[in-house]
Protein: Small RNA 2'-O-methyltransferase
Amino acid sequence: MLLTISTTHQPATDLGYLLHKHPDRVQEFTQSHGTAHVFYPESHEHRCTAALLLEIDPQSLLRTRKSVSSPDFALAQYVNDRPFAASSLFAVALGDVFRTALKGRCTARPELPDRRLPLTLSLPAVPCRGGPEYARRLFEPLGWQVRTEPVPLDPGLPDWGDSRYVGLTLTGEHRLADALSHLYVLLPVLDGAKHYWVDDDEIEKLLRAGEGWLAGHPERAGITRRYLSRRNRLFRVAIARLAEVDDLDPGADDGGETPAITEEAPDKPPALAEQRAGAVLAALKAANARSVLDLGCGPGKLVGRLLDDPQFTQVTGVDVSQAAIQFAHDRLRVETMPAAQRSRLTLLTGSVVYRDDRFAGHDAAVLMEVIEHIDPSRLPAMEQVVFGRAAPRAVVVTTPNAEYNALYEGLDHDAMRHTDHRFEWDRARFESWAREVAATYGYQVRFLPVGHEDPQHGASTQMGVFHR
Structure:
């Protein structure tokens, strides 16, 4: 299995710093199923290429077969595509060999990981269940130009047609850490299978590697289901854990990869994320806001909806993650956006717990699924920054309702919807906090449920609308 990573960034040899692998050395890394090699076919200031080659030991692979489903026939234990096609074996090796690069760290050159580089990633053989079109559906929304070359079943027998393998080439400008995370998650998804037993730990791996891009991906459900080997319980837990960015009501997304649409199909209620964004927009319009500050904007879904409404003449998206801001920039297609629309948009890297003069001067501010990510001890700092210094006429806050968690299948008692949540409040606790903030900073507040409202547990999302 082979992956090459090429860049024409100047100087191109910065790739060695980012990968933490010296271009002048060939390095070997022992894996449970073989050996991974890293080397540089070319290394010049104008172009640099790093290669990851994984050699599989079939006997080592066979010794672990007892942990997964047995093959349909005995010969398949010895004759299969695992040594040659970039599948989950290769993703595991990539995660191990380039662990520090995946985390976006570079001690020697700390400014490098946040730079977007012109990159070309090439894999000569990738199993692709779903064909070349499925590969494009996975990678193009992430900003890659995708070229696929079908691999024939037998070059000497063209009538047999193509195999399920493709040569895959991805071209685009990305942070190297993001590019590696895309491969780490999506190679097993393309294959549709894993070489090891999938348990709850896989959810953590998926959420860590997919941070900043998975929740906003149009194929999110299919990616999640395939990555978790179609295990329904794990899928439901993972979808619930993505709740703070783009969650769904229980059962709203069945994880189908290519759902059929028929004329007789009943209308499904919109996803909770859509209902939440709609409720926030309605509150902003009722407040006659024209300039809006979206704090914790993430991938920019609400920002995009605000830009689509001519009432909002200035839209500012802010997120603490530079990667999230860049993802929003790409997702909104800022480079090709009409000039009039682009003039209404500002994207900033910033934190809601630090004073920032750029936050001032807006009619309204939004904290949509943000406060639960802040340590309780830091909430007073956020309150001072948003309600005290920025002091817009209106502030809209949404947060999960902890009481509703009992209705999410797969969430244990007292568990939270996401590992990054510092707390999740019930309705009484949220209303108490909101009223105290309103009294301190001269606001009034009203409360609205968002999404389906259960008679006992309330709605999944609770919203507070503050106004002077």
About this structure: Confidence is low (pLDDT under 50) at residues 66-78, 244-268. DSSP finds 16 helices and 14 strands in the chain. The first strand starts at residue 2 and ends at 7.
